[in-house]
Amino acid sequence: MNDITMKLNADELILSALREDVTGEDITTNSVMREARLGEVELICKEDGIIAGLGVFRRVFELLDESAEVSFSCEDGDKVKCGEKLGIIRGDIRALLSGERTALNFLQRMSGIATYTNSVASLLKGSRTKLLDTRKTTPNMRVFEKYAVKVGGGYNHRYNLSDGILLKDNHICAAGGVKEAVKMAKEYAPFVRKIEVEVENLDMLREALEAGADIIMLDNMSVEDMKEAVGIVGGKAETECSGNVTLESAARLADIGVDYISSGALTHSAPILDLSMKNLRTI
Q1: Is 219 a catalytic residue?
Q2: Residue 193 annotated as catalytic
Q3: Which of 101, 150, 179, 186 is catalytic?
Q4: pLDDT tens digit string along 132-151?
Q5: In angstroms, what CA-CA distances link 23 with 45, 77, 107, 138?
Q6: Which among 67, 121, 134, 185 has the fewest CB atoms less than 10 Å away?
Q7: Per the residue annotation, which of 135, 136, 150, 206 is the catalytic one?
Q8: Which domains, from first to last, does the chain contain?
């Protein structure tokens, strides 16, 4: 996440998180630190994993103290080890104390997603299948969480509802059927937009293919049905399987032959990576 992306997409969200934590003043910090004083504190890793979100972590302190300096010994995507010192944060001690929890919340959450994504993606190595995230993200955290998925070795599905056409079960019901839904989408949407259709059985699959869907999502189908579905599609559309894809189930899905596997668990079920800021001192 470069500086331009950060300023355009992340700064307001970071400031919102800071305002959530400090509505009036940081009364604890102000009690023990009555005036500006330069200090530094270490960023420590407390368990093995993949680090992600270092730029967001840094930006928290830059927004609180323009003179803050944050240096890291690692980069996003690196494997980190328990006990490893990952960086040093220098600046006004009041900013270091007030920004600590918000900065760690972002970094721990993003690193946890990258770590979990990496563990699932590793099960698909050697296959043709790419691992995708979903829109099952924490409200107002999507830009950070989808970035973390990419750092962990996954790929992003559509970012939001304006990003692509995905006709799910309720859209199909609203339209009156698969063929009707695809026809309406083709008439309404720009021709450059691909149309994806969620199907729950082989009959719906055949109907979606006949209607000219570009991507077929095989939703909560058995492994046997998904294998048959890939054969029926025969390259006439891209295929994606979805529905309760977890670390435990991903390995057995790798041999189905679908183009994509999407998993909401990458963002809604990843545990945080434990990190802390320690050894604060004045300089």
Answers
A1: yes
A2: no
A3: 101
A4: 999 999 999 999 999 999 99
A5: 29, 34, 22, 22
A6: 67
A7: 136
A8: 3-120+271-282 (3.90.1170.20), 123-268 (3.20.20.70)
pLDDT in tens, 145-194: 999 999 999 999 999 999 999 999 999 999 999 999 999 999 999 888 99
Active-site position among 135, 168, 194, 227: 168
168 classed as catalytic: yes
Q: Tens digit of pLDDT for each residue in 42-87?
A: 999 999 999 999 999 999 999 999 999 999 999 999 999 999 999 9
pLDDT tens figures, 222-248: 999 999 999 999 999 999 999 878 887
Burial of 231 (0-12, 13-18, 19+ CB in 10 A): exposed
- For 73-122, give the DSSP string: SS-TT-EE-TT-EEEEEEEEHHHHHHHHHHHHHHHHHHHHHHHHHHHHHG
Is 7 catalytic? The answer is no
pLDDT tens digits along 95-134? 999 999 999 999 999 999 999 999 999 999 988 899 999 9
The span from the first CA to the last CA of the chain, in angstroms, equals: 30
Residue with tokens 């390995």: 251
76, 207, 219, 259: the catalytic one is 219
Q: Kindly state the tokens that stand for 195.
A: 């149309």
Active-site residue, 150 included: no
Backbone angles phi, psi at 241, to 5 degrees: -110, 145
Between CA 115 and CA 270 the distance in angstroms is: 8
pLDDT of residue 249: 81
Which residues lie across from 275 on neighbouring strands? 45
Distance, CA of 257 to CA of 218 (rounded, Å):
12
Q: Which two tokens stand for residue 178?
A: 């698969």
